[in-house]
Amino acid sequence: MTGVDEAERNQQDNADTLVRNRENTRTRLLKAGRKLFFSRDYTAISVDMIAREAGFTRAAFYLHFTGKDALVAAMMIAESYKTDPLFERFNHMATTPETIESFVRAFVHSGRDLPAGRLFHIVALQSDAARDAFQENRRRLMAILGDGFPAFRPARDDSHEEQRRAARATLAIVMLEQLALRDAGLASPALLEEMILEMRDRLVSLSRIYRGD
Fold first, then answer.
1. How many helices (H) and strands (E) does the chain have?
2. How far apart are CA 197 and CA 102, in angstroms?
3. Binning pLDDT at 50, 70 and 90, where does residue 175 land?
4. Distances in Å between the alpha carbon of 94 and those of 83, 121, 182?
5. Distance in angstroms (rounded) separating the CA atoms of residues 48 and 18
6. Contact, 188 vs 151, CB < 8 A?
7. Full-prediction pTM beyond 0.70?
């Protein structure tokens, strides 16, 4: 190996180490933020607290995030992909009442496995960056679902009927999110069952409107 080759290899090794170190720092900051956000009120947590929890300085934090809002937005994006398999599982199935009901049940019960959803809903009311990330994720999931469930696709034209259908689709997703967040907290199983069936009927209706039935 020539001196030039060795110098190039060392340069590449240094670059790879720098990337790994940056990724490790970012991961530790996200982990520290998650721990603090789940244990305290969002407004009471500072950048200094997050950096200290992660074992870094304030300056190190700002090399990765512009502020705690940006960190929460990054957390939202990472967490949001956990629901992709659920949406992808249903996006190519026939949109029968039975399939739609299965999707609603699966989505609602997924709230038990994603406790971060409650935090993100609260933070989205206090942070512009978090709200933007939340809304972008909602659009992304609707696009995935719309591949096999046309009622969730964007409006096909500017007609009142299409705009209304698209707005109702967005509202349905918002209602599903809220129902998923409250699943474990509903005192009455009968009430949860009633709400699941109502949501199923709402989505069936949307599907019929899209087809023009």
1. 10, 0
2. 10
3. confident
4. 20, 31, 28
5. 23
6. no
7. no
